[in-house]
Amino acid sequence: MKFPALLTGFPARTIFRVGLLGTLATSLAIHAAATEPATKPGRLTIEVTLGEGLGATPLDGRLLVMISTDSHAEPRFQIRENPRSQQIFGVDVEGMKPGVGVVVDGSADGFPLAGLDDVPSGKYYVQALLHKYETFHRGDGHVVKLPMDRGEGQQWNRAPGNPYCSPREVTIERNAGAAQTLRLTLDKTIPPIPDPPTTRYIKHERIQSERLTKFWGRPMFLGAHVLVPEGFDSHPEARYPLVIFHGHHPATFGGFRETPPDPDLKPDYSDRFHMTGYNRVSEEYAYQFYREWTGPNYPRMVIIEIQHANPYYDDSYAVNSANLGPYGDAITYDLIPYLEKKYHCLGTGWSRFLYGGSTGGWEALAVQLFYPTEYNGCYAACPDPIDFRAYTVVDIYKDKNAYFDEGPWHKVARPATRDYLGHLSSTLEDANRLEAALGSKSRSGQQWDIWEAVYSPVGPDGYPKRIWDKKTGVIDHEVANYWRDHYDLRFIMERDWPKIGKNLEGKINIYVGDMDSYYLNNAVYLTEDFLKKTTNPPYGGEVLYGDRAEHCWNGDPTRPNALSRLRYHQMYAPKIVDRLLKTAPAGADVKSWRY
Fold it and tell me: Which residue from 226, 235, 341, 465 puts its CA 20 to 30 A from 445's CA?
């Protein structure tokens, strides 16, 4: 037998193996052809129509289709990034008109399954929803389409005004060979969210921000939930310290309950804490805080939670941003002076303090860093990444790919979430694929997209430049360098410490669990190395770690994380008073509020 010229020069045993493998491959191909179904799965499409009764104005937005195997809740409430998620697909739509169908097909972004063609035969519950976008003519000249928050805190499945349909039970049959189209009509609209009640202790404020209005090209507002101290009305002469509790969009002041826990509340189960009745525990601790707050020995201060939801997320990260606008200046120079005047605060930098956890932890540290003389101390718990060499588990400056640690022969997926024993529930690719389904151009309203929106420069199309390719995970190091110079908090401190260190002395305090659910402790380790070893003058604060503590650990070693996270206010109040009394300038009022 004459072998092909391509194999000339190979040893005989090598030629024999090549020939044998070729024969085996041919045999397997023949076997596969013989066992392949006679008909391939038919093409599946879903046609969604906007109901005639929902108005005549064409709508822009993200059309979302959810497919669920579980009838106990609407599919729109069953989407998450862990293995228990049901299926979602998303496509952008522009000018969707009543009565005209929009087809969702195999090209739609999906999670957990990548495409509609991957959905197997079976019985399902299907639901569709349109997350509406508004057109913004921004002050920087860009025209963008984004989902304006409508009071819900950028929750696409609860946003008032979003058209949707009730779940529909369907049978998908993929083996018949014929195409199948499911038809859904958006015939309902999510209702408005009622305003929270005002009480003796909780007040609600909202002002229009001229800075933000100019940036976004339409009226923009900042709000706050204000917790006033016991005796506020009976001590008009008192002037109070102001404490900003940073965090996600609050419906009202969180963790404060003026009535005893509801005895009829049905106990839920917390997967995170493996605890039955955690909803009852939360109410008990909120009521306990109320009793302490109104008791004779609690420090008298005003605490606020800021409402700064925006077209990208449920809050702004409280800093100035190329994509979100000057939220840092608007909060510090407009909202806070307004609140201090109305609620009888001392109104000076030495009498203002910051604390928060997670997003709020990053904000507390960032605001203290960017406005060093306007605040007198931050208590940052489990902060979002404060050193981008540990952007959770990614070094955005050195790594080439965010989703995988790649070698010459093998690659390993990078994790996104874990429990205190290290058990994984999602990867970075999982989390970003879900976001890609929920919205393109950083418009998902989720965690990785808001980091991108806050930290990135504006792209040519007016939307944030991607830190990495959403499909492949390949990192753009030019964008990474922009992030470093503007928002890498450890880098900025190290770069600018000779200029700002004196104004930060004693003000920086960081707390994180060493098994943080999102690996946020990694960035704290790197930041601590700088703070404790190289700062001159010394930073003078504290960095503490919770043994086996997951996300939201706040520095309390005496309680399990499930309970300590419900006591942020009580945890930091004594530290704030101690700091304030030690640093108050000569002649300052340190008595009127201490009744």
Answer: 226
Query: How many Cβ atoms are within 10 Å of 70's Cβ, its own excluded?
Result: 12
Report field, pTM of the whole predicted structure over 0.90: yes
Query: Is residue 25 domain-resident?
Result: no
CB 373 within 8 A of CB 503: yes
Question: In this structure, is residue 37 part of a structural domain?
Answer: no
Q: How far apart are CA 341 and CA 328, in angstroms?
A: 19
**What is the pLDDT at residue 178?**
82
Statement to judge: residues 166 and 236 lie in one domain: no
Answer whether residue 23 shows pLDDT above 90. no
Q: For 181-216, what is each residue's pLDDT tens digit?
A: 999 999 999 999 999 999 999 999 999 999 999 999
CA distance 500 to 255: 35
Q: Are 465 and 459 in contact (CB under 8 A)?
A: yes
- Measure the CA–CA gap between 469 and 473, rounded to whole angstroms: 5
- Let me know if residue 472 belongs to a domain: yes
Inter-residue contact 394 to 402 (CB < 8 Å):
yes
Encoded tokens for 147: 């989902």
Find the angle CA(275)-CA(277)-CA(282) to the nearest 5 degrees: 100
Q: Do 404 and 291 share a structural domain?
A: no
Check whether residue 172 and residue 154 sit in a common domain.
yes
CATH number at 337 reads 3.40.50.1820
Q: Distance between CA 164 and CA 549 in Å, rounded?
A: 40
Rounded to an integer, what distance in angstroms lies between the CA atom of residue 559 and that of residue 267?
Answer: 22
Q: Which residues contact 411 (CB under 8 A, 6 or more apart)?
A: 401, 404, 405
Whether residues 167 and 76 share a domain: the answer is yes
Q: Is-contact 89 136, C-beta < 8 A?
A: no
Total count of domains within the chain: 3
Q: What is the residue type of 175?
A: N
**219 and 256 belong to one structural domain:** yes
pLDDT, one tens digit per residue, over 472-527 is 999 999 999 999 999 999 999 999 999 999 999 999 999 999 999 999 999 999 99
Find out whether 316 and 454 touch, Cβ atoms under 8 Å: yes
Q: Which of 484, 511, 529 is the last residue of a domain?
A: 484
Residue 330 has, within 13 A of its CA and on its CB side, a CA count of 28
Q: For residues 113 and 171, state if they share a domain.
A: yes
Phi, psi of 355 (to 5 degrees): -150, 165
Are 334 and 246 in the same domain? yes
Residues 531 and 578 in one domain: yes
Decide: residue 580, CB within 10 A, 0-12 exposed, 13-18 middle, 19+ buried.
Answer: buried
